[in-house]
Amino acid sequence: MNKITPTADGSNTLFNETIGEHYHSKHGAVQESKHVFIEAGLKHVTLRQSSINILEVGFGTGLNFLFTLDHCINQQLQLNYTGIEAFPLSLEELRSTGYQQYVPDLVWKGLEDNYALALNEPISITADQQFYIAHTTLANFTSPPLFDLIYFDAFSVQHQPEMWSDEIIAHVGTFLKPGGVFITYAITGKLKRALKAVGFTIEKLPGAPGKREMLRATKAL
Questions:
Q1: pLDDT tens for the chain, residues 1 to 221
Q2: For residues 145-171, b (16+ Cβ closer than 10 Å) or e, as one string?
Q3: How far apart are CA 148 and CA 13, in angstroms?
Q4: Which residue in 79, 82, 133, 207 has a CA-CA distance of 20 to 30 Å to 107?
């Protein structure tokens, strides 16, 4: 069982003892998820479309998915969500986070009731929202360029450097449609160079609490 840890905004995260790092920022799990992935990612992309295909690298606790599903239901957006997770948490661990308090019951039940099923096949939560968790490594995941938005929420380069290599970043970029967006909490010179090398335009944005900057990148048309 991964250890529950409170964060500065009052929400919990889990400590992954194998990796040696928390799943979310100690400065605020909920704040980070909303700031990086919802505000700078999801809302940015859906300004110009009514449906969205999202790939999350590092499904983890499901927090980004919960806020994404909540937003898409509220805004009547069609959602096709795929998470990649090589080491899925147990349903008991997901429940232990207390994240059900931050979303409506319909949204929490969408995750809770379908989590085990979604590890095997795409599951429809409503007529317009479905999700799937690919139980594999990022290196072994393959897909045509189907996605409008990638949430890159891997553990940090300090603890999981293989997830941030030039080869992996190029691999991830192939999953996006032309004009698709790559969003992450991190920003390094190496990451910027890797994305530029495969045709992305880079934006520096204000980071979540505890981080000065973050990165958003758009794939060339």
A1: 689 999 999 999 999 999 999 999 999 999 999 999 999 999 999 998 999 999 999 999 999 999 999 999 999 999 999 999 999 999 999 999 999 999 999 999 999 999 999 999 999 999 999 999 999 999 999 999 999 999 999 999 999 999 999 999 999 999 999 999 999 999 999 999 999 999 999 999 999 999 999 999 999 99
A2: eebbbbbbbbbeeeeeeebbeeebbee
A3: 28
A4: 207
Structure tokens at 154: 């891997």
Residue with tokens 């085990």: 116
Alpha carbon separation from 177 to 54, 135, 172 (Å, rounded): 11, 23, 11
Cα-atom radius of gyration of the chain, to the nearest Å?
16
CA angle 93, 94, 100 (to 5 degrees): 135
The DSSP letter of residue 88 is: P
Could you tell me which of 65, 132, 77, 130 has the C-alpha nearest to residue 103? 65
Residues 108, 21, 212, 172, CA torsion sign = negative
CATH placement of domain 3-219: 3.40.50.150
Distance between alpha carbon 221 and the CA centroid of its chain, in Å? Answer: 23
* Residue ranges covered by each domain of the chain: 3-219
Q: Residue 192 burial by CB count (10 A; 0-12/13-18/19+): exposed, middle or buried?
A: middle
Amino acid letter, residue 26: K
DSSP, residue by residue, 122-143? -EESSSSEEEEEE-S-TTT---
